[in-house]
Amino acid sequence: MTSLTERRLAQRPPDTRPLPSVAAYDQRLRARQVADRPADIGRDAVTLKRHRGLTEHVATAAVDQACRLLRLPTVRAQFPELAEAAARDQMS
């Protein structure tokens, strides 16, 4: 016994389209990795990107928005206390 889906697929002509290529994405990734490398790769070279510091207001707004998008009302409600405790314990 064959399913209705199998019968429908059997009646269709074969798909002759070429498979999608990820070569363009690979090239972009390689170019990005080369651009991120420091010019001097020595012992003192900085290999990590520097992140710009966020103000406390912006960081709080970002966490609030993320909690809304992820539907995490408990984390959103507890965030001010958690952030205060982290600052107190110097874990921020």
Structure description:
By secondary structure, this protein is an all-alpha fold. It has a domain at about 55-90. About 55% of the residues lie in helices and about 0% in strands. The chain has helices at about 5-10, 25-35, 55-70, 75-90. Helix 3 packs antiparallel against helix 4 (about 75-90). It is elongated and about 70 Å long. The protein starts with a helix and ends with a helix. The model is unreliable at about 45-50 (pLDDT under 50).
List strands and helices in order, with pairings.
Layout: H1 4-11, H2 23-36, H3 56-69, H4 73-88
Based on CA inertia axes, which overall geometry fits? Answer: elongated
Q: Estimate percent helicity.
A: 55-70%
- Rg calc: 26 Å
The computed structural class is mainly alpha
Major beta sheet, specifics? Answer: none
Short description:
The protein is an all-alpha fold and 92 residues long. The protein has helices at 4-11, 23-36, 56-69, 73-88. Residues 43-48 have low confidence and may be disordered.
Task: Give me some keywords for this one.
single chain; 92 residues; mainly alpha; 4 helices
